[in-house]
TrEMBL record:
Keywords: Signal. The keyword Signal applies. This is Uncharacterized protein. Residues 1-22 form the signal peptide.
Length: 178
């Protein structure tokens, strides 16, 4: 039941975003591959789950900078986030450094589906204590500026979390930053 309520909240959020901004849904079907290709900053604005350690360990999850296109449906994107519990501190000893990683993302199609809406990823290199798992997502809805993703599986450091472990499916809303 919780999964259904969370899913409804996410869909209502996207519908309101489309209605309130006057943006219409694109005429062609957008997929996850198309969403991540442009040189835009992508921010996770909502999620119905917290990684082990709590929400303060992964605030403002962002994918930024122009992606490096490796081959068809595979790219490298830079991910970073704010960890308020980080022991990696800026040289002036006042604020934590943002953990950062180069992540290789491969987009694929589900059987009997159109669009490259499943992404499997791995971390190429990370700095400053990056401990979030690389994205293993399925894009469920994409309006060009925001997308709803289902987290297929995740691990944080050496702790595993498979989607649904807490009795509900894990979803997030990611949006391009203007």
């Amino acid at each position: 039941m919780r999964a259904f309520v969370a899913w409804c909240i996410i869909l209502v959020h996207l519908a309101l975003e489309v209605y309130c901004t006057g943006n219409s849904l694109p005429k062609r079907k957008l997929d996850g591959w198309t969403f991540f290709q442009p040189n835009v900053e992508i921010v996770m604005i909502r999620r119905n789950y917290n990684p082990p350690g709590g929400p303060n360990e992964s605030m403002c999850v962002t994918a930024a900078f122009e992606p490096e296109l490796l081959e068809e449906h595979r790219l490298i994107k830079v991910f970073f986030y704010l960890n308020m519990s980080s022991t990696h501190i800026l040289p002036n000893h006042t604020k934590p450094m943002w953990p950062i990683a180069n992540i290789s993302m491969t987009f694929s199609k589900q059987e009997n589906k159109t669009g490259y809406n499943t992404v499997n990823s791995y971390i190429i290199k990370s700095w400053h204590g990056y401990s979030l798992s690389p994205p293993k997502w399925r894009f469920l809805l994409n309006n060009g500026s925001c997308a709803v993703v289902k987290v297929l599986s995740a691990s944080y450091g050496n702790r595993a979390n498979v989607s649904g472990k807490y009795g509900t499916a894990n979803f997030g809303v990611i949006c391009t930053k203007a």
